[in-house]
Amino acid sequence: MSTSDSRQVERIHPVPDPGIEEHLPRWTDVDEGAATRVTRQITFMFGLVPLLSIAFVVFYFAIDRNATVDFAGLHAPAQHTLMGLAAGLAILLVGVGAVQWARLIMSDHELVGERHTMASSDEARRVAVQQFADGVADANIARRRLLGTSFAGALGILVVPALVTLADLGPWPGPGMRKATIEKTVWAEGVHLVTDVTFNRIKAAEMEIGQLINAQPEVFKDMAHEDPAQFQREKAKASIIVVRMDPNRIKIPASRATWHVGGILCYSKICTHVGCPISLWEQQTHHLLCPCHQSTFDLANSGVVVFGPAARSLPQLPIKVDGQGFLVAQQDFNVPVGPSYFERDSRNDYQEGQD
Hints:
Rieske Iron-sulfur Protein, 2 domains, 4-stranded antiparallel sheet, 37% helix, 13% strand, elongated
C-alpha cells in the first residue's frame, strides 16, 4: 500500500479495526438437552398467550362494569384491571419468549456488514434474499417447528382482544339500532311544547307574530333530574324552535297544511350541516341563521336552505293545540334530525317546490 493510500485509510478509519472477537459457544449450543428445555420454556410462554387472550374476552363479557377491586390501596374498575393484566401479561410473554428465542436458540454467529449506498444493486438484493433465507434456517424453525407454530399462534390470538374492544365504540349502527336511537326522538302525539329552561307550556293565543321561542318537550322536566345523561342525549335530538309568522306571508305545502296552528310552526333547532344549535332569527325575512357556518333556512318556506353549506331543509315538527289551547306535537319528526350520515334515508326530506 502506498503512503497516499495509507493516509486515505487513516482518514476513513482513524481507529484501528478491532476485528471480531473470538466466538464463544452458548450453553444451548453445546448441550442439546439445555436447548430442548429452553425450547419448552419458550413454547410454554407462547402457549399461555391464547389462554390469556381468552381470559381477556371472558373478563370483558362476564364482569360487571360497575364492579371494583380494592387491593393494597388500589381502587379501580375490576373489569379494566383484569383485562389490563391479561392483555399486558400476554404481550409480555410474547416479548420475553421472542427475546429468549433470539438469545438462546437462533444462530449465534457474528457477522460483519460493510456500509453501502442507499440504492442496492440487483446482486445486493439477491444476496439479501439469500441472507433472509439463511436467517430463517438459522432460527431453527424447520428443526423446531413447535416454536414457530406457537409463536405464530401467540401473535395471531392477540388480535382477538383488540377486536373485542371495538365493541366499546358503541352499538352496531344497523337499521334497527338507528331507527331506535338517532332517528327517533321523544316527541309523540300529545307531548306538550314547553319553553327551554323554565318548562312553561306554550299557549298559541299568547304568541305574537315574529316571535321565536326556544322550546323542549315537556317530558324533559322530570328527565333532567332523574336521568341527566339520558336527558342530554335526548335534548341533542329533540330541541326545537317555535315561530309565529303572518299566515299570508308563508308558503304552506298541501302535505303540511295541518302541521301549523295559525301561522305557528315548529322546526328542529339542530342544523342539518354539522349539528350546531340554531336560534339567530330574522323576523323580516323569516330566515334562521346558523352561527357556526352561516347556513340559512327559510322558515316561511318549510325550512328550505337558502344559503350556506347545509344540504337539507330543517325538519318540521307537526303541531296542534290541546283542549286548553296549549301547543302539543301531533307525532315525532317524519325525518331524522341533525347532520346527514351515510346510511340516512333522505327520501322524505322536504325539497323546494314540493307539494
